[in-house]
């Protein structure tokens, strides 16, 4: 009986953490920023930056559609770097996961290109 309750609690815990996209974000280890986008950002923003999963369903914690060039063009790189490093509401801070220089590159080389690719 006790074991059953314990197992149920463990399962509930595992399900909760799996459902939280801000949990277990990997550190940027250098190298491929496109891969880091897929590993760390796509769970909320989508692989293509449009805030949708691979089946086209809107992701609950996307916050912004980076493929919307009209909206994206109103945003400054410096502000996007700041949000990436420091976070904002549901957007987690990445300052302990990547350097400012890497965050800057992430914005100019990956995030900006989502609008251009449309
Ligand atoms: C847990 C979900 C989550 C993850 C993971 C995540 N983001 Fe976000 N992001 C958000 C949300 C939600 C917002 C909107 C925040 C707001 O304005 O309230 C946002 C906003 C942003 C913005 C600002 C967009 C604007 O409104 O102008 C940038 C830039 C950004 N994210 C980049 C990234 C990058 C780069 C990564 C990966 C290194 C990442 N995000 C990972 C949820 C996430």
From TrEMBL:
| Cited Pfam families | Cytochrome_CBB3
Q: Which InterPro entries match?
A: Cyt_c-like_dom (IPR009056), Cyt_c-like_dom_sf (IPR036909)
Organism of origin: Geothrix oryzae
Provide the alphabetized UniProt keywords: Heme, Iron, Metal-binding, Signal
Segment Disordered: which positions? 48-70
As given in the record, the signal peptide range reads 1-18
The keyword Phosphoprotein belongs to this UniProt entry's keyword annotation: no
Q: Which Gene3D superfamilies match?
A: Cytochrome c-like domain (1.10.760.10)
What is this protein called in UniProt? Answer: Cytochrome c domain-containing protein
Q: Does the keyword Ribosomal protein apply?
A: no
SUPFAM superfamilies reported in the protein's UniProt record: Cytochrome c
Which stretches make up the Cytochrome c domain?
Answer: 19-114
């Amino acid at each position: 009986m006790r074991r059953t309750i314990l197992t149920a609690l463990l399962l509930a815990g595992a399900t909760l953490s799996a459902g939280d996209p801000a949990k277990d974000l990997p550190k940027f280890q250098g190298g491929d920023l496109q891969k880091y986008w897929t590993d760390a950002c796509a769970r909320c923003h989508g692989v293509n930056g449009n805030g949708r999963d691979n089946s086209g369903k809107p992701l609950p914690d996307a916050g912004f559609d980076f493929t919307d060039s009209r909206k994206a063009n109103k945003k400054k790189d410096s502000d996007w770097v700041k949000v990436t490093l420091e976070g904002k509401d549901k957007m987690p801070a990445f300052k302990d996961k990547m350097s400012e220089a890497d965050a800057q590159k992430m914005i100019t080389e990956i995030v900006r290109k989502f609008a251009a690719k449309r």
